[in-house]
Write a structure and sequence with these properties.
The chain has 3 helices and 3 strands, in the order αααβββ. The chain is of the alpha+beta class and 120 residues long. It has one domain. Strand 2 and strand 3 form a beta hairpin. The longest helix has 29 residues.
């Protein structure tokens, strides 16, 4: 019975020692700074969660003041997938000649994320 207790204590210590570097790595990755363009918006946010209406108001105020300049077609300031600036947004279009429909949108030149504009 004493050996089982020693093994349990030993495995708990080994587990703690092995989990510490993993937790340290995770928290270091999670503690990244916000991008420079987002900092003015973040500074205006309260400590408690806010409503969607308030967030939209802050976004619109940032647009009107010139703090951010969203893409005219998509409304994004950066690619939602990889964070590339809007200078990487490339227009695309596709046509279905059988149905006579056309589709347009933008894609990120870095990660190829597509922002559909819908039917033309």
């Amino acid at each position: 019975m004493g050996l089982e207790i020693l093994l349990a204590i030993g495995s708990a210590i080994v587990g703690a020692l092995l989990s510490w570097p993993i937790a340290h790595w995770y928290y270091r990755r999670a503690a990244k700074e916000a991008p420079e363009w987002a900092q003015p918006l973040i500074d205006k946010l309260p400590d408690a969660p806010i409503s969607q209406e308030r967030l939209v108001t802050l976004y619109n105020e940032a647009i009107e003041s010139g703090e951010i300049d969203p893409h005219a077609f998509t409304g994004y300031t950066r690619c939602p997938k990889c964070g590339a600036s809007q200078e990487y947004f490339e227009p695309w279009e596709a046509w279905d000649n059988v149905r006579g429909d056309g589709y347009r949108g933008f894609r990120c030149g870095k990660c190829k994320y597509e922002i559909s504009g819908g039917e033309v």
